[in-house]
Amino acid sequence: KDVQKESEPHVYLSKEEVKEKIQSYNSSVTDKLKMTLNANGVYTGFIKVQLELCRPITVQSSQSQGRCARSNNETAFYLPDGCVNTLHISSTNTVREVIEALLKKFLVADNPAKFALYKRCHKEDQVYICKLSDREHPLYLRLVAGPRTEMLSFVLREHETGEVMWEAFSIPELQNFLRILDKEENEQLQILKKRYAAYRDKLEEALGGVWKPG
C-alpha cells in the first residue's frame, strides 16, 4: 500500500555534477533509454508514466477501445489499469507540461487540471508516494534517482481532493459517465441474476436428491 510522503527539497546540481550524473545514469541503463546532455546544459531523456485512473477519460475521435459511451465526436472510456506510457522530455519540462503531453498523446480532451503526477519510491521495504507540484521537473528526479523504476516511478492519477470536482466536467462528459454507469449497473445486475439462478438450481437439485418420494 502506498504511504503519502511530503515533497522533498530540490537540490540544485552544477553543470559538472549533471554531466557526471548523466554518465553514471547511462552506464546503468538496460533498456537503451539514455539521457543526452546538450551544449547549453539542457539534457533530454525518457520517463515512463503509469496511468492509475479511477474515472473514465474523454478522448477526441473514435480511436478509443474498450467499454465506452459515445457523444458526438468524443468518447468516454476507462483506460486499462496499469497502462504505462513512455515520454521523451527535456530537463526544462515541468510536471504540468508532462501531464499535458501525456494527455495529448492519448488524444484526451479532459482538462489537464483534473490530473496530478505522483512519484512513487521504495525505501526500507515501504512504498511511498508523493504528489509533485506543477513546477517540478520529472527528468531531474529521474536523473537523481537513476534508471531503476523500482527506486522511483511516475504515476498519473486524478486529483485526490476527497470529492469529485464535477463542475470541472462538461455536460457531454457527465452524460457519457451516466451512460457508462447505467451500462455497468445492468452488466452487474445480469451477473448477479445468473449467479443466484445457478445457486437456486443447485439447491433444488440437492433437495430433489435428498427428498425423493418413497
TrEMBL record:
This is RASF3 protein. One of its GO terms (biological process) is signal transduction. The keyword Secreted does not apply. SMART domains: RA. It is found in: Cytoplasm, Cytoskeleton. It holds the Pfam family Nore1-SARAH. Residues 71-161 form the Ras-associating domain. The keyword Cytoplasm applies. One of its GO terms (molecular function) is zinc ion binding. Gene3D superfamilies: 1.20.5.110, Phosphatidylinositol 3-kinase Catalytic Subunit, Chain A, domain 1 (3.10.20.90). Keywords: Cytoplasm, Cytoskeleton, Metal-binding, Microtubule, Phosphoprotein, Zinc, Zinc-finger. GO terms for cellular component: cytoplasm; microtubule. It comes from Trogon melanurus (Black-tailed trogon). PROSITE patterns: RA, SARAH. InterPro entries: RA_dom, RASSF1-6, SARAH_dom, Ubiquitin-like_domsf. Residues 163-210 form the SARAH domain.
